Structures are given as C-alpha cells and as structure tokens.
Amino acid sequence: MQCPQCDQPMIESTISNTTIDECHACKGMWFDRSELDEVKDEVLPDLGWLGIDTWQEQADLLVKGNRQLCPKCRNTILTTVIDQQSETTIDICAQCKGAWLADGQFLNLINAMLDTAVQKSAPEYARISLQKVKDMLTSSDPISSDWEAFKTVLSLLRHRIFIQHPKLKSLVEGLQKSIPH
Predict the structure, then answer these.
(1) Distance (Å, rounded) from C-alpha 16 to C-alpha 13?
(2) Closest CA to 18 of 29, 10, 6, 2
(3) Closest by CA position to 33, among listed 97, 78, 81
C-alpha cells in the first residue's frame, strides 16, 4: 500500500491489538474501516461510548475535497474533514470507509474527543445513558461492552452533577459517612 501523502510504501504497525498501515517517511497512519474506533477504544477505554462518528457530530466541521487517492481503493479521492476548533484533520474514503491521519492528527483526535467528553452537560450524559440502556436491550451483540460503556457514562454523569452542584456532593458525602458500615 502506498502513502496517499508522500507516495512511499507503508508498512504494518500495531497499536495495542490493532494492526494499521503507517508511513515511516511522513508518519501518517491509515486505518481500515472501524480500526480507528478500535484503536481509540484501546487507548481510551473509558471513552468507548464516544465513537468517532459521535465526535464528528459534536465538532465544528469543515468538509472539503482532496487530491489524494485512497491508498486502499486507489481510485477514490479522499474527503478531508477538519474540526476547526481542535484543528484535527481526517481524510476519509467514501468507498471503503478507511481513514488517513497525517503525522500528529491521531493525538489531536484523542485530545478533541477528551475535550468533547469533558464539555458534556449532565442532561447530555443522562441522554447518553438512556441510549446505552436502549442499545443493551435491542442489540444482538454481547451485553458486556454496552454495560461497560453504560457504567462509564453513569460515572461521568455523577461527576458532572457534582461539579455543577457542589452542595449536593457535600450532602451525599455527609449521608455516606452517617450510614453505619
């Protein structure tokens, strides 16, 4: 596979348990369909509930054409998606759904997703929690991954509520101390 940026051969590289293609010349990375979410989940297991597509829905995006060809399809021009706030750029293939990240963009993406998670309000976490319950009840996938995502979102909801209402946090902590063990 040839690098879409500098046309050098790419080699397979492993991030956690996922094999991706990487260009050693320009340090760009190619992620086949769903590999970017897999790697994100391995690097940030507590953000498994926040998918790349969810980040894209929240971000201030600019979409534009590109001259680079997909390294996998070789006949499809990549589409550039830029989050203007975090300056994260991802080049996506409409045909194979793969993603190209130039040098440093994976770290930008991870930081942008962390920012997205931190900025959510308590009502947003409550809505996400309810969606995770719905996913658990309607999915044919094993319940364990949805359960872990649900627990994480509930924990974030609790933290967000306590940040927004410090008196409530003090009250709950006082009640916990007063309950005999």
Answers:
(1) 10
(2) 29
(3) 97
Asked whether the whole model's pTM tops 0.85, one would answer no
Question: Do 113 and 167 share a domain, yes or no?
Answer: no
Counting every residue written for the chain, the total comes to: 181
- pLDDT value of position 8: 96
| Backbone φ, ψ for residue 66 (5° rounding) | -145, 160
Instruction: Give the residue from 38, 82, 104, 84 showing the smallest Cα distance to 92.
Output: 82
pLDDT tier for residue 91 given thresholds of 50, 70 and 90: very high
Boundary of a domain, candidates 119, 139, 155: 119
Residue 169 has phi, psi (to 5 degrees) of -60, -45
Tell whether 115 and 152 lie within a shared domain.
Answer: no
Give the number of domains in the chain. 2
Instruction: Determine the structural domain holding residue 52 and report its residue range.
Output: 11-119
